[in-house]
Each structure stands twice: as C-alpha cells, then as structure tokens.
Amino acid sequence: MTELRSQTAAVIPAYQDEKHIGDIVRRTCERLDHVLVIDDGSSDQTAQRAREAGAEVIVHDQNRGKGEAIKTGLGQGIGREVAWMILLDSDGQHLPEEIDRFLSAAASATRPTFFIGNRMNDVARMPFIRRVVNRCMSSQISRVCGQRIPDTQCGFRMVHRQMVPELLGGGHRFDYETEVLIIASRKGYRIESVPITTVYTDQVSKIHPLRDAIRFLKLMWRYRKLPHAAGSRPEY
After folding, report:
1. Is 232 within the bounds of a domain?
2. What is the reported pTM?
C-alpha cells in the first residue's frame, strides 16, 4: 500500500480549530505524504498550528463555509500527482489512523469510487439525537441518490481524482457534503461505505440547526424534482 500512500492527498477543511489541528495534521502526515489544510478564514492560530505540524496551508481571506473550503482543497489536489483525495475533519472526530481503512478499500477498487465513512455500526458513542437525525437524513438522501448510504453525515471520505471536476459545484456550507453524494450518484458513481470509529469528545458543532435544516430541505426538494439522467442511476 506504500505506492497508494504516495498517490493520495489529505484535504482538511478547518475553521477556528487551533486546539486540535496540529495533532490531526501530525497524525495524518504519518499516513500520507501530502497533507493540505484549508483555513477557512479563522481568526485564531489554526493556520500557524497546521504549518508547524507539517501541512501545506491555504488561507481563505474570510469564512466562506465548509463546502467552499473542501472545493478549494479538491481543486488544488487535482493539480498534483495524486490519484485519490481523502477528506477528514480538523476537530478530532475522525481518526487519521483509520485512513488505512480507506486506502485498503481503494486498493481493491476496480473503478473510480466515492468512499464514505460509516459510524452507524458504532452508535453507542453517538449522542442519541444525532443518531436519530442521522438515520432519518441518511434514509432520505439514500432515496434521492438511488443507493443505500448508511451514514451520509460523515465527513471522512475518499474520492478518485477523476470524480473531482464533477464535485466542484454544489453548496457553499454544510449542505455541500450532502449535495456531492447526490451529484456523484447521478453521474453514475458507486458510493461505498468504510466502517470507522465513532468519536465525540469536546467538539463544538459549527452547524446552525435552523439555518442548515432549511438548506437541507431546499436541497432535497430541488433534487427530488430533478429526474435522474438516463442510465446514470445506480441500483438502490
């Protein structure tokens, strides 16, 4: 898997995460040769901590939203000699050591695939309300995507570079992570789940419940009205 490690870049969107980002970057650098942090307009020491830990850092001049940070990172990644890009959060919810699980899945892939983490086999450590909301949202999104995705809310992901140009549109904030699943599905890509550990410690959610719920409902309504392109809908 050594060759695959050198062909994979990590993209880590970050905002006001000076407490965790250094540790996440150091542990990610132990797994991959290329680590890119997108500081989405933080006012703290996020960018500095990331550089000190060994990451390349791109700084947005203002907060544009997680979706825009991810797109900046993916856009930078396709200009490099990498075949795959791994997305993980900067706040400690994803264990960099489990990057190896994604690399193993990619090593056996026979075509470009969208891999997404699945925490739903480890729900005892997930707060009850998040567990309920996740199951509900994942069911709705799976229906729109036309394929079963147990944990659509997981930000730990791995995508093949061939897919990236298709993923540079979509929403600007947290709705982006949902929309790219729909876009990838409707382009005919298979989305496969990779079991990962559920981690909840001292992270403070950056999601705004009412605002982001409205965005989600609008997104679902829009895509339910749009038919799948002929031949692009995978089996559910």
Report:
1. no
2. 0.85
